[in-house]
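Quick entry, no commentary yet.
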Amino acid sequence: MKFSIIIPTLNEAQNTQGCLMALQPLRSDCEIIVVDGGSTDNTPAVAEPLADQVISSAKGRARQMNAGARQATGEVLVFLHADTTLPDNAIPLMRQQIDQPAPWGRFDIRLSGDHFMLKVIARMMNWRSRLTGIATGDQVIFVTRDAFMAVGGYPDISLMEDIAICKALNKISPPLCLKAKVTSSGRRWLQFGLYKTILLMWSLRLRYFFGEDPQTLARLYSGGHLWKP
């Protein structure tokens, strides 16, 4: 079973380099595809020697991940953010469990950083995901190509694409919730303030549930705003 790791990037040269360096031992089992959304730094140049493919796409995680999926040759697609690292045994775990019985899943998460609330936030994310069957992109969603194609890939929306595809995949089966932890950066939580960001994330999810335009939500998310700036 071949895996394709798809990494959307935008002006993240340092994170991309660290992410790809960590993936080098996996290249015998995986192909690595970096999909750049128009970086103005040297992200593509950094990625070139460390990935199997570096391709360009219109900006937007959903569009970039779909573009990567179209180029991928693996039977399993793994969608990885540039500021997130996989556990050492990620590939064997996915290989052992995917399609038995579910064709998709995600990992538990830990957030890097010293603040004690980052551990609480990560634990809440893992519990919520198990309860709802909905994963965030930071938890590294993986899915068989067949299941990904069956739901039409990621919907072309500016934010909440991870929630949308999880809802679609849940119609096929609940996710595999692997206890092994990916490590994702806690920088955003610290940058905008832990408690403000918690409130922002819940607010965005609630507004999405009630039909708010994802483009509006994306503007709020990128600026860390609770209300329209």
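second:
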Amino acid sequence: MARPREFDENRVLDAVMEAFWRNGYEGTSAQILVDATGLGRGSLYAAYANKDGLFEQALLRYRKRAQGYVDRLRAGGSPTQRLRCLMMEIVDADLTGPEKRGCLATNSAVEMAGRDPRVADLVRQNFAILTRGIEETIRRGQSAREFRSDTDAADLALFLLNAIQGLRVLARTSRPQDRDRLIAVIDRTLAALG
């Protein structure tokens, strides 16, 4: 019979996610993970096999953020305003945060997805959560005549996901005084849905 884990798994997985998010896969050493979690190397690897297993857990944990965005999109109000609020929230978090971390899924795609099919699959799954939420919001907007209905909602959702990920990259390299320019990009992007 397996021994129960003697640590708070949620706290440990949050710390693992934060470590990879801050440092990337290559930049996260075993010592960084030990320091972040407070667990010994043996305990950490006994629970999660190896660095790859820990990285997979970080990407799985990051899905909660994507689902959180979807939950906010499903809140009441205008679909246009829901999407605008989501995009502004993302830009503001990436632009003003103490660490310009961007999106863990995007960062992982750039760093690892080209050489690791499992990472590519996990990133796709993460993007699919947000894309489905965007698509639902666009469908509501099409029904309310806020968005054009002559274009497939799934195509528009992918267009918007692309814009959001691009904004995340721009925000990582922008300064706080560039916020108005990024908000203008948001407004132009949303106007393309109309």
